[in-house]
Structures are given as C-alpha cells and as structure tokens.
Write a structure and sequence with these properties.
This protein is α+β, with helices and mostly antiparallel strands. Helices cover about 35% and strands about 30% of the residues. It has seven helices and eleven strands. It has a six-stranded mixed β-sheet with strand order 7-6-9-10-1-11. The protein has a five-stranded antiparallel β-sheet with strand order 2-3-4-5-8, covered by helices on one side. α6 runs antiparallel to α7. This is PP2C family serine/threonine-protein phosphatase. InterPro entries: PP2C (IPR015655), PPM-type-like_dom_sf (IPR036457), PPM-type_phosphatase-like_dom (IPR001932). Pfam families: PP2C_2.
C-alpha cells in the first residue's frame, strides 16, 4: 500500500470589511485532521459557534479515533463528529440567551491509509489540485446552488445576476438538534494539494484563478496560502477569509505529518 507524508499550512484573516473574525480553523497533524468553520454572518455569537464546531470535532477524534480504523468506519466517525458538534452548538444556543440563533458551516478532512475522508455542512468548501487541474469536491448547501441544480439558472453567476443571494444556506450546524452531514472519501496521489476554505475565499477568488495560482506556485504551500488571502482581500475582502492547505507526498514509511502556520 502506498504511504504518504503530509504537510499542512493554514491561515485566517478578518478581511477588509468585517469588524470581527467569525471563522475558526483547527489543524491537528498527529491526527491527520483539518477543520474549517464559518460562523453564520449576522447571526448572534457566530464566532462562538465556529470555535465550538472546531473544538468539538478535534475532541471527538482525540477521544475515539483508532489508528486501525478503515475507510468505512472513518466515514461513520466523521459523520458522528460533525453531528456531535451540531448538538453541542444547538444545546449551548438553547442554554444561553446570548448564543440563541448562532450557527456555523463546517468542512473537515481526515487523512487515513484509505485516503482523505471528508465531511461538511453548509458552503465552506474542499478543492483538490491534481495534474494541473482544480476540482471542487464539495457541493454548497445553499439556495443559489439548489436553484442552479433545479434548472432555474444555467450557472451560479447567472443566478447572482438575477439577485439570488450567495449566502443563503439550506443547511448549517446549530440550526436544529440534528443535521444531515455530507461526506465522502478521496484517493490520495503524490503531489495532491487539498484546499479547505470558507466562502470569504471562494466568493472572492474564482475557481479559474485558483487553477492559475497553483499553476504558478506549484507545491509551495506557504506562498500559496499567503497569495490566496491577499487575492481575497484585494478583490474586496468582504468576509472573513480562512483556509487550510494539505499536501500529499509519496513516502516509503509511515505517515509522519509536518505542519506550519
């Protein structure tokens, strides 16, 4: 079985408009875990919800993950972890008046011997750069995405031109006592780069710009992370910007993740 080394870089930035950063990011190299969350803009205590989501998911895998877990079991675990985060956010929102109505998106990834196991709720995204191509792996849980898929518009850009809000979510953590989690598994190849990000990046930097950027910086994670934040800010920085990059490198031994921030 092919073994890999894994490198991590992450960034979070308030952007140019917001007075507070309501995003959160957690990277745990020893667990092979990345979590990115975006507190719902305008909702009370959104920053509390995003932080609680990342903490709950990290706590879950610190307590329960077995190094012998296989892909199918890890798919169950990522679902359980995200739903546990949802319950904790919901319960805190019910218990504290100042937190009532808070919510967050989340996208997470877990590196295993079977591949990258991922899960998400909302419109925070996961992309993969491979063979000079960028591919969006996740599907936004948003009204605008549903409108396009149901054939009302030919593209997201057309829907935006007709006034459909890009930030209207159909699913988020903390809205209800339970939630439906989307998940899957990606095979790993030498040279893969995975990008986890909030919509403060994806709404500011089009997919074709992502392709061009990775085409220029290649596998250099630090310059890529800095350039992505700068691009989002230069194009308006209307929201908080958070991203985490994961790079896969072939190895003859165990998976020994290294990290920088």
């Amino acid at each position: 079985m092919q073994r890999f080394d894994v490198d991590y870089v992450w960034r979070t930035d308030r952007g140019r408009v917001r007075t507070r950063n309501e995003d959160a990011v957690a990277v745990e190299p020893q667990l092979g875990l990345i979590v990115v969350a975006d507190g719902i803009g305008g909702a009370q205590a959104g920053h509390v919800a995003s932080q609680l989501a990342t903490e709950a998911i990290v706590d879950y895998f610190r307590r329960r993950r077995s190094t012998s877990s296989i892909g199918k079991r890890l798919l169950v675990q990522v679902d359980e972890a995200v739903r546990e985060a949802n319950r904790r956010i919901w319960e805190l929102g019910q218990a504290k008046r100042e937190c009532r109505g808070m919510g967050t998106t989340v996208v997470m990834g877990l590196v295993s011997e079977d591949g990258l196991i991922y899960a998400y709720v909302g419109d925070s995204r996961l992309y993969r750069w491979r063979d000079n191509q960028i591919r969006l792996i996740t599907r936004d849980h948003s009204l605008i995405q549903d409108a396009v898929e149901q054939g009302f518009f030919r593209s997201l850009d057309e829907a935006r031109r007709h006034g459909v809000g890009a930030n209207l979510l159909t699913r988020a953590l903390g809205t209800y006592p339970d939630t439906l989690v989307a998940s899957g598994c990606e095979d790993l190849q030498d040279g893969d780069i995975y990008l986890f990000c909030t919509d403060g990046l994806s709404n500011m930097v089009p997919d074709d710009w992502l392709r061009q950027l990775f085409d220029v910086v290649g596998e250099r994670l630090e310059p890529a992370a800095d350039a992505l934040v700068q691009l989002a800010c230069d194009r308006g920085g209307r929201d908080n910007i958070t991203l985490a990059l994961l790079r896969i490198r072939a190895s003859d031994g165990r998976i020994p993740p290294s990290s920088t921030s």
